[in-house]
Batch of 2 targets.
Target 1
Amino acid sequence: MGAQEPDGSDAAPGKPVFSNLYSGQDGIQGEPARDLRRLTLRYGNKVDEVFLTIALDGRPDKGMPP
């Protein structure tokens, strides 16, 4: 199952188009935003490597495409 980009054909006139893949209806996320600056606490010296790997390769196991 691949992610599909919204084409706007079913959007109400004047409303922006959001993908519900990562956010809820109208682009409102159900969880608080993560503070990416705190990744150092979890990944230590490898924070840059981990961030780039996730940003470039995604997390297919979690449903995040590259």
Target 2
Amino acid sequence: MITHQRSIFVVALVAVSFLSTSNSLLAGDAEAFAHRDVNDDGVLSGKEAAAFVQFDADGDGEVTKTEYTAGVAKLRKQLLEIPDDKLFADYDKNEDSVLSGTEMIALEVYDADGDGELSINELKAGRDAERKPAGPSRDELLRQFRELDKNEDGRLSGKELAGYEKLDRNGDRRVTEQEFLEGDAPAPQAGDPLAIFLRMIRSSDSTEFFDTAHPSFLIELDRPIINFFLAQVSIALGELSKTPPEVMAPTTQEEGGLVLTYHRMELPFSITKAKATVMVLENRLAGFYIESPLLKEFDQLLFQATESNPKVAKELAEYYARKCETLIRVILSGDDDKAFAAYHPEAQKQIDREKAGEIYQLLRELCGEFQSSKLVGIAVNSDDKGKGQSFSVTLIVSGSKGRAEFIAKLEALGFKAHLSGIRVKQPTASDSTAPPPSPFAKPPTPAIKMPAIPAKPSAPPPPPPPPAPAPVNKN
């Protein structure tokens, strides 16, 4: 079981690796290191280190996690100079049109769907985002305009107009919403990570956040969970004031060869104040957390809402059904190694690989070649005290040979639900005629029990800033 008992609630773009280690910030790189550390001794040595000797900074024959993450981060920046198509072709040693295994060294962070393979489109999208942050969309510009329009009269005038005079096409010393949208608004305003953070908290809308945050961290964040968190912030703390918060002088900290900037502030909500820290990497949001006892046990709030709120259940179920279908396709293709890699690294250490292979084979025997999948619903697995432990997402899989019921067990860690178990069985004859079971029904006990992901020890928050830093106003 994974729980959040601390009053400091971490919004984990930084996710598992940031919360449980102090030497790695890139969740994708840390996870890749864990996969390659076969004997789980915290270093790569012997055969483990054969492909990574270039990262052995001290020449002791072993590659530590710090050396690994620093090495791949440096290599990734160097590789940005190589055209995408050439890099992909050079790395695709077996010429199967995807990168996998050691072909993905330093490129794992671009695996947007987390399936263990990197397509040319994923590579290009990730590298484009690193080379140059995407320009603001129409929705982003609208949010920016409304942020600037302090008196909410639908136009910028007086002090609001400062810096935007060139957008005034008719010379009336006012900029309308249309002029703002059609003009060339200054990019720094739209791309300011602190402004993006504040807009997200005020609006409870994560769209701009997902469009602009650092891509290395988005792989450890599930959109439905962050959306639910934003709603809970609004309920527990109230509306965030439009008055710019006081932001303390930023501090920097080097982690894994990368320089992370910490911006600390006090957020004036309508119900209560809350301290917040925003982490920035390469001028893009890399994580944040909010301190408030009102946000304790967020995972239990999520479980309760899944059982009682059809809208929340539907959003979660549909999101994870897409993830499950991707895994189902991998299993039916016969790639057991890739299917096993879908488990959380901690679960992989405890799962009987042979038993997992039996489940994969049963699915292939029942279904044959993949044809379609249909979502049945999502349920919450609870302990004997009624406390939520995990989710179960159920799908009916149809193939060339027949049909199977596929149940995936998912455990929330940070703001991502990780795979920790799979159950496969043949549907009963009534499945084709009976109405779908309730998405809130308690799931059956798995035939082959997979272990739960052990809870990670709570990590302390980043070190406090130097005493009495000079406050500055930041919107």
